[in-house]
Amino acid sequence: MTNMQYNVKNHHHSAVEKKFKQPIKIARQLQQQYETDVGSFFAEIARFPLENLCKILIELPSDIFGEAFSRIPHKKMAAALSYLASDDLTDFLQRVKQYDQDYAKSTYCLLAPDEQAEISHLSQFSADQAGAYMQMELLSAELTDTLSQVKQKIRIFRKEEPNSPIFKLFVVDAEQHLVGILHFTDLILFDENDTMQTIIAQATIHHHKPLSVHATTPVEKVIQIFEEYELSIIAVVNDKEQLQGRIVFEDVYDLIRMQEHNQALKMAGTDYEAEEESLDSARKARLHWLFINLVALCCAAFIVSLYKDTIEQLVALAVLMPIVAALGGNVGNQAVTVTVRKLALHQIDWNNAFPVIKREIVIGGINGMIMGGVVSIITFIWFQQILLGLVIAIAIIINLAVAGLTGSMIPLLIKKFGGDPAIASPLLLTTATDAIGFFVFLGLAEIILI
Amino acid sequence: MTNMQYNVKNHHHSAVEKKFKQPIKIARQLQQQYETDVGSFFAEIARFPLENLCKILIELPSDIFGEAFSRIPHKKMAAALSYLASDDLTDFLQRVKQYDQDYAKSTYCLLAPDEQAEISHLSQFSADQAGAYMQMELLSAELTDTLSQVKQKIRIFRKEEPNSPIFKLFVVDAEQHLVGILHFTDLILFDENDTMQTIIAQATIHHHKPLSVHATTPVEKVIQIFEEYELSIIAVVNDKEQLQGRIVFEDVYDLIRMQEHNQALKMAGTDYEAEEESLDSARKARLHWLFINLVALCCAAFIVSLYKDTIEQLVALAVLMPIVAALGGNVGNQAVTVTVRKLALHQIDWNNAFPVIKREIVIGGINGMIMGGVVSIITFIWFQQILLGLVIAIAIIINLAVAGLTGSMIPLLIKKFGGDPAIASPLLLTTATDAIGFFVFLGLAEIILI
Lengths: 450, 450
Prior knowledge:
The structure is a homodimer. By secondary structure, chain A is mainly alpha-helical. Chain A folds into three domains: about 15-125, MgtE N-terminal fold (Alpha Horseshoe); about 140-250, CBS-domain (Roll), CATH 3.10.580; about 290-450, SLC41 divalent cation transporters, integral membrane domain (Tetracycline Repressor, domain 2). Chain A has helices at about 15-20, 25-35, 40-45, 50-55, 60-70, 75-80, 85-100, 100-110, 115-120, 145-160, 185, 195-200, 220-230, 250-265, 270-275, 280-305, 310-315, 315-345, 355-385, 385-415, 420-450, and strands at about 140, 170, 180, 210-215, 235, 245-250. Chain A starts with 13 loop residues before the first helix and ends with a helix. Chains A and B meet through helix 1, helix 2, helix 10, strand 3 and helix 11 of A and helix 1, helix 2, helix 10, strand 3 and helix 11 of B.
């Protein structure tokens, strides 16, 4: 798959492009090199230009990352770190600290004072707060600044922060409170001597939303605001409402992606952080859910044991009962997934959930009738017993309708009581569909067949 | 949850803000209104300002959307549609067409000729092509244009397209080939008489990537380019490499979200499009997978039936066998989810898959030993049979290690043979873990216990 095919062309600045682009792809190659030839892996790292070094390293999987930085001299690392935005810089050093506290400390001491200040400010925020994704490098102007003063500020900013793109202009009052966010398309149409005050009053900027979030705002909320208001950038303020930094679109791409990945992993009974950390922490995070699931499975096994005598008399029941339970698990899982998605997209909540629950019961019931019919025919052909076919058909219809009910109710209930609907839903569901499936099938069999 | 809490403030232009913001939220309210009081639902729709009408309607779930537009006069609808960007306009009319071809046709005829041309151009692209997400409204300048000519173009564009934000300036040559993309932060620092040619040559714009995609480029690839290059905007060109339109960040937020949602739904055995369409199409999409799963389940049932005599002699096996199978299903599902995610993030492919497979086998094996130990103790306490405890422990260890192997291999194999690893993986997995679980457990029991 060549770039040509998709017309990803570096039209003019190809030299500059090559140096700055696609750290992700370089990291993937590096990862393969690590697995085949560690020597050339370290040789390759030593060759990377400073501008790009940290951006590539941060993309490496955690086990490789831990080794990759270790052979880079502190001084070189400090110089390379200066090319990162403040949020990435903080994130990088925090990751290094997990593997080698001394290395992180020595490197920190070699950074510029303003970088140190940014790190100590940003590292107070946890990964689920807006502050952790805030770049402190930004261009702001005061209300009284004229356009020509702003131009001078742009020139200075570009010299001091050559790696930090200026997307929009943040306008603040004398106490650093955010007053507006100006797009440069607006600025370009005004005169040198117009002040920001004048420009804000006149600019026709319905698409420039001077929205802000607090550094402590949950990151879930930040993502939601970006999507609802279709923002490319948002201002971050402190608890005195003063401008502190900005969060930009490229972080939002990552955040949406990670939010979704995390949800998918949670539903399967594991955890994004744990998976990234090490084999052992991934294993433990997963084991946790296996144990909880075992409790559920023992309940299902207990229900089966109640019908031991029935099974002894008709062993075909043991052959068929996994089908009833598994089909219920399938239908329930479809309902859980659809409901968790609707909750994540804020399409439903507890108050308008009834149509969703009804829909899932109807879908489960109708599909239950179809599957029940098919399975009863299979059963009849296999075991030549009409009544057994009837029992399994009824059991499947009931179990699949109930699976639709429980599959949609469980995430809604968990959400209502303040939990994360993705985490425990599939688990609770499996218990429900297994237990109900066995109970209905074996119970009916005992009544009708024995 | 008030806006204040998150400091989502409308600093200055609050009147303008209110009119333009958050169609999603309004749509949610409208949806509730529809369910409780259809009369007030239509009254509310009639009251919306033209600027906002279509943006709200498009956010409604499809079953409500189909009714919502029907009472709006064609002329009003045509006027409201003019406030949409060309891609959304096309999308809107295509959705209307699904419900009422005549309504769509009559409205189309009332649109301005340039809008009609844009629609007929854009509607040739399918939903998985870049062209479908392309806005044709954009500001471009030629190389020979001076900055003051560009300013004039901005003024004209703003008058003609008041609802279309200008993010960057596309610079083309005389044949409309894309030459560069300029940020207005660059433009503002130059003189009135500088041409775009001069500015491109001098601007220090390492972060302005003049990347482009073809209108026929798969949308998956477009998303990948946006994320890899951290773009806010990309140019779309035709097959003669001439500038056609742009795709912007706000569509990328949606696209990433939908890509992930679609994947999650696929893994659960349903489909995003089908779920959005109607209850019946959702039900059929789900039924499809239940049938395929049934084939798998019959294989598992067949394996159980091979050991009917064994179960008859020791009915505890029927009680315990769901535990062995379900734990395998769990471990396999964890492995499938992690592997599908890694494939989606392009972190692995077939060639460097060995460490991933090994990892999953090790995790499955170690957790198998722990769960096997616990279950054998439970079994011993429950049934007072040491050998039965031993059999179930061995079966669980083998099944969980094999579940790690199959769970990671299945998505990799499907991907290798050109399939979508999300779609059939969980399904094939269930067959594997059920069948292997029953086979190992009952087979061992027959050898050791009977």
